Amino acid sequence: MSEYTDGFLMVVITGIVLLLLYRGFKIWLRKPFTLGSGVGFEFNENIQGHPAVDLLESAGYEIVSDKLKVPLAFRVDAQVLHSRLYIDYVAKKHGEYYLVRRTRERQPMEWTGAGLRRDILPYLLLYPDCAGVLYIDTELGIIKEITLSTDLDDAEEASHITDIWRTR
Q1: What is the full DSSP assignment across 4-66?
Q2: Of 2, 88, 5, 10, which is closest to residue 44 (Cα–Cα)?
Q3: DSSP, res 138
Q4: Is 0.85 topped by the overall pTM?
């Protein structure tokens, strides 16, 4: 009887290990592919006083960096074109980093899908490990957290959209 229970336990343990390996592999396959960002930046720890800083701190964010200029270079055939991306602040809350962008009078945010794609998507793609982008309107005292959602149904559910027309 001892050999029977030993063999049975080995089969059960093997089954559990195979199940865990299968589930781990399945979760790994569903994990979204992230583009590794080769563009890094050094924190600018010289944080200047601004109403946006006060607004972020009152909301529980810790400012870890002031304004940053991220240089970008694009190669088109043999020509190199230069540009830059500006980040107003880098904030931290609950161990996650957020890129911060303030309202700009000359560049108002268009709150449509196309507007967010044009203005916010470069930040989210350049730094995929950030939790999101915080858009701050200091005049209204509003902080909007913008994240990229890859699942349309989750985005609709989170925004409580019920009557949307779309084809499937």
Answers
A1: HHHHHHHHHHHHHHHHHHHHHHHHHHHSPP-PPP---------PPP-HHHHHHHHTT-EEEE-
A2: 88
A3: T
A4: no
* CA gap 104, 94 in Å, rounded: 28
Using only C-alpha atoms, the chain has a radius of gyration, in whole angstroms, of 23
Enclosing H/E stretch for 84: strand 79-87
Instruction: Note the pLDDT tens digit of each residue in 143-155.
Output: 899 888 766 655 5
> CB under 8 Å, gap of 24 or more: what pairs does 141-145 form?
141/55, 143/55, 143/56, 143/59, 145/98
What's the count of helices (H) and strands (E) in the chain, helices before strands?
5, 7
Query: CA-CA distance, 62 to 93, in Å (whole number)?
Result: 6
Q: What is the mean pLDDT of residues 5-16?
A: 90
Neighbours of 123 (CB within 10 A): 21
Other CB atoms within a 10 A radius of the CB of residue 145 amount to 12
**Residues constituting the chain:** 168
**Averaged pLDDT of the chain:** 79
